[in-house]
Write a structure and sequence with these properties.
Blueprint lengths: L2 H7 L39 H11 L12 E10 L18 E10 L14 E9 L2 E8 L12 H8 L15 H8 L5 H8 L13 E2 L4 E4 L5 E10 L8 H10 L3 H11 L5 E10 L25 E10 L4 H6 L12 E2 L4 H17 L83 H9 L2 H16 L4 H15 L1 H11 L36 E5 L6 H13 L3 E6 L5 E2 L5 E2 L3 E2 L10 E4 L4 H8 L2 H12 L3 E5 L4 H5 L8 E4 L2 H13 L16
Parallel strand pairs: 11-12, 11-16, 12-15, 16-17, 17-18
Antiparallel strand pairs: 1-2, 1-9, 2-3, 3-4, 5-7, 6-7, 6-10, 7-8, 8-9, 13-14
The chain binds protoporphyrin IX containing FE.
């Protein structure tokens, strides 16, 4: 148990001690289901303090949801530093090998309300709170390395545009509507980020299969006081990969909690999600080495130019005990930094330093939100702040001001020092004329969007074209559609623009402005997801379809083999009743074909069976749809023995992800290989005729 979990233990109750129900002031109850009335049929009496206390508490159970990132999932874990990084930063949690720091992570979507579906197309928030020995450090990032706007002043406009439209609160959790494309069509700095969202990055397969990015340039300050600019990255050990759009939409309807559930189940089963924290480092005087400004949050530094240096590893190993108390009340603030970590002058970051503390005041109801158990630091904390709503600490002593003599000057100030000193901002030299001007170095809005497009594989490009087509087609105003294509897409890539324009029936209009000069559009292979797979099948989900007459050994051997390789295998049947195998053994399905459709899995195995089982399956429309849908979603499918006739029945064209054999031994290696490649991309051009 780490320091944070130990601390939380003190606040936990299992409601079995005391044994008897009481009011909030400890008075035991003799009735908790009937109000106090004047006679059994009489009116309720105002005197009923038990009823009033219960209803009053209920009436106030909700707090405002986050204005953005309302839908999210949280869990506990720890961070392990790979080594002593003190040459880079004096941050204590990176100061020695295997230094272990408790963390709480919250991964979220951005635009949807709390009850929206997990698999909508969106940016995903990736926020980590490190409970370090020197105070809390919050790294509040996203699963994409760039942002839509360059200056904090546009954030409210951006959010108003992307969230549900004000007159009818539609659409829920989706950017496919007029106000978003109206804003972005008029705001070219958003081009790069919108492209990321339209790529497969916008629909990750699970929470553990996505990267995290700090986005802004921050500073590391080392023991000598030297500053190095740093961009922080989280790389998932499970690899980075995504759903298909059709899958994502169907999952949103059949299990809107899909991501949350999968994350929860992985943690419960001991298959812990892990990420490596890495840093791109840039000496102060090297910041001009690029053709873009490293203070501009719409730009990334290609990894091929500046490699990501590994710093440590995060393991997420424990679900919360109470969603509201932990995940909902956790308060991330960009302003929570520790000595050794500091800000840059990125104008978006500067606004964020203010915004998070400010928003917690209304969301969590006052200035004492850091005293809520999930937010409390694990190191001692003290200052002269007092009072306010829901103050928990009982401060003793007569003086709550600095300086004081009455309390002998306590709490004292700590000198900044090489390590374990007080926080002191990096002494950056600043001078300038007050103005609203934006730096000329922020003017190039398209080079990196083109670089991202050029970095995509063919199937990723096809998905982007389809995503823009879907999204912009949902805009009801023709001028919004036309402007987005002509103001934005044309400037990213002509093929992209032409294909989307054709699909939307939009005319590409010759622009009167001079062509945009682009720099650095060379592909960056690190941006393309097929290059980011883990090479294994850890945490992949496989369904095994069993019906009466299935071969017991084939099921068990396949299951054992795949589980040894780290996959999660579920036995699925038409009902939850026990299934009698060909040799008389019994198997218990864990899910049904209807309740656990193939969209919830990465691969399907239909084991060796008797003719009887084959007949049952061939006559079952739900099963046939299951296979067709898995095929359409480019999944690995294997048939054992006689069931392979189903392939012919469904007229599925052969490819390397459709496997036939007489039992698991014939297909297991190819199954593993195909699944480790995530999807059977070669099939994609052939599936448009599949009716699923
Ligand atoms: C000026 C620009 C921005 C402003 C003003 C802003 C403001 C906010 C606000 C008010 C919240 C709700 C916080 C809460 O109620 O607890 C929030 C959440 C969040 N923001 Fe931002 N944001 C900005 C840009 C960004 C950027 C660039 C990123 C990514 C690098 C980001 C990542 C997040 C994340 C991950 C959360 C959810 C935190 C959680 O899980 O509780 N935001 N933001």
């Amino acid at each position: 148990m780490n320091k944070k979990l130990e601390q939380l233990e003190k606040f936990k109750t299992n409601d079995k001690n005391p044994v008897y129900s009481t009011t909030n002031t400890g008075v035991s109850l003799s009735d908790d289901a009937n109000s106090l009335k004047a006679g059994p049929r009489g009116p309720t009496l105002l005197e009923d303090f038990v009823l009033r206390e219960k209803i009053t508490h209920f009436d106030h159970e909700r707090i405002p949801e986050r204005i953005v990132h309302a839908r999210g999932t949280g869990a506990h874990g720890y961070f392990l530093s790979y080594k002593d990084h003190s040459k880079l930063t004096k941050a204590d949690f990176l100061s020695k090998q295997d230094k272990k720091t408790p963390v709480f992570i919250r991964i979220s979507t951005v635009q949807g309300p709390r009850g929206s579906a997990d698999t909508v197309r969106d940016v995903h928030g990736f926020a980590v709170k490190f409970y370090t020995d020197e105070g809390n450090y919050d790294l509040v990032g996203n699963n994409m390395p760039v942002f839509f706007i360059q200056d904090a002043s546009s954030f409210p406009d951006f959010v108003h545009a992307v969230k549900m439209e004000p007159q009818n609160e539609m659409p829920t959790g989706g950017s496919a509507h007029d106000t978003f494309y109206d804003f972005c069509g008029l705001k070219p700095e958003s081009a790069h980020s919108v492209l990321w969202v339209m790529s497969d990055r916008g629909i990750p397969i699970s929470l553990r299969h996505q990267q995290g990015f700090g986005v802004h340039s921050y500073r590391f300050i080392n023991q000598e006081g030297k500053s190095t600019f740093v961009k922080l990255h989280w790389k998932p050990l499970s690899g980075t990969c995504s759903l298909l759009w059709d899958e994502a939409q169907k999952i949103a309807g059949k299990d809107c909690d899909y991501h949350r559930r999968r994350f929860w189940e992985d943690i419960e089963s001991g298959d812990f999600p892990q990420w490596e924290l890495g840093a791109q480092l840039l000496d102060e005087d090297l910041q001009k080495k690029f053709d873009f400004d490293i203070l501009d949050p719409t730009k990334l530094i290609p990894e091929e130019l500046t490699p990501v240096i590994p710093l440590g590893r995060m393991v997420i190993d424990r679900n919360p005990d109470n969603f509201f108390a932990e995940t909902e009340q956790v308060a991330f603030c960009v302003s929570h930094v520790v000595p050794g970590i500091d800000f840059s002058n990125d104008p978006l970051l500067q606004g964020r330093i203010f915004s998070y503390l400010d928003t917690q005041l209304s969301r969590l109801g006052g200035p004492n939100f850091n005293e809520i158990p999930i937010n409390r630091p694990v190191c001692p904390f003290a200052n002269n702040q007092r009072d306010g709503i829901h103050r928990m600490t009982i401060n003793k002593g007569g003086a709550s001001y600095f300086p004081n003599s009455i309390d002998k000057g306590y709490p004292l100030l700590k000198e900044p020092s090489a390590n374990k000193g007080g926080f002191r901002p990096y002494p950056e030299n600043i001078s300038g004329t007050k103005s609203y001007d934006r730096s000329e170095t922020f003017e190039d809005h398209f080079s990196q969007a083109t670089m991202f497009w050029n970095s995509m594989s063919q199937h990723e490009k096809n998905h982007i074209i389809a995503a823009y087509t879907f999204e912009i087609s949902k805009c009801s105003r023709p001028e919004v559609r036309t402007r987005y294509v002509n103001n934005i897409l044309v400037n990213i890539d002509s093929v992209l623009a032409e294909k989307v324009a054709k699909n939307l029936g939009v005319k590409i209009e010759p622009t009167s402005t001079k062509p945009i000069k682009k720099i650095m559009v060379k592909p960056s292979p690190a941006l393309s997801q097929p290059n980011l797979l883990s090479g294994d099948i850890v945490s992949r989900r496989i369904s095994v379809i069993i019906e009466k007459g299935v071969d017991y050994d084939d099921v068990i051997n396949f299951k054992d083999d795949m589980e040894k390789r780290g996959a999660m295998v579920m036995l699925v049947s038409s009902t939850l009743a026990q299934v009698e195998c060909s040799g008389g053994e019994m198997l218990s399905p864990k899910g049904t074909i209807i309740g656990n459709p193939s969209i919830f899995f990465d691969a399907v195995y239909v084991p060796k069976s008797t003719e009887e089982a084959t007949k049952i399956l061939s006559d079952d429309g739900n099963f046939l749809h299951y296979i067709l849908e898995a095929f359409k979603h480019l999944k690995t499918i294997a048939f054992g023995g006689s069931v392979s006739v189903i392939k012919e029945l469904l007229r599925l064209p052969q490819d390397h992800g459709l496997l036939l054999g007489n039992g698991y031994k014939d297909i297991t290696e190819q199954f593993f290989y195909s699944l480790a490649h995530h999807r059977v991309w070669e099939r994609e051009s052939k599936v448009s005729k599949i009716p699923a």
